[in-house]
Amino acid sequence: MSFLFRGGDPALDLVNTVIVEAGAPLDLIPTPADLAAWTAAAGLGSPAAVSPEVHAAVLDVRSALKEAFDAVLAEQPVPTDRLNAVLADAPGTVLRAGPDGLQLLPRVDLTADPAALPWVLADAGARVLTGGGLLRRCANHDTCVLLFLDTSRSHTRRWCSMEACGNRNKVAAHAARASGRPPGARPRRSPR
C-alpha cells in the first residue's frame, strides 16, 4: 500500500491516512496489519504485529487529532479531553543525537511492543498543537483533505505536494487562461 507522508509530522501524517478518492473517504489503515505497515513506513518502528486494541486506540487518536487540528484551523477552542486521556499513559521521551542534531524521541521501542503507539501519536499531535508551527490544509479543497506544517521560509505554502495538488491546480488555471474562460469554470461540451 502507498502511504502519503506530506504533513511534516507523524501526527499530521496519521490524520492524513484518510484521503478522498473518487469523491469518497478512503481509510489507508483499516486493519491492524495496515497500521503496522504505516508505522514502519513512517519510521516509527517496525512492529511484527499490531493488536486490534492498539489499532482501535490509534484510530481514536486519529479522530481526536483531526478534531483538534480542525478546531485550530477554524480558530475555535481545541478539545483536549480525548488526547489528554491518552497522554496520561506517558511512557516519556529522551533526547538522542541524530544526523540533524538533537531529537526529542519517545522512550519506547515500537518494534518490540507497539502498545505505546497511541501515546506516541497523541504526543506528536500535542507538539503540533502547542509548537506554534503553521498548520495548513491543502488549498485543493475540491479533491484533497490533507494537512501539513508550513515550514517554508515565507510561510506561503499552499499545497500538500506541489507535484500532486499544486501541479494539478496550475495546469487547470493554465488551461482556463488558454481557453479564455474564467479560472474554475468548467469547459463547455461540444454538441454531438
TrEMBL record:
Domain Zinc finger CGNR: from-to ranges: 135-177
Gene3D superfamilies, alphabetized: Jann2411-like domain (1.10.3300.10)
Region (Disordered): 173-192
Biased composition regions of type Low complexity, renumbered to the chain: 173-183
Highest taxon in the source lineage: Bacteria
Protein name: Conserved protein containing a Zn-ribbon-like motif, possibly RNA-binding
Organism listed in the record: Pseudonocardia oroxyli
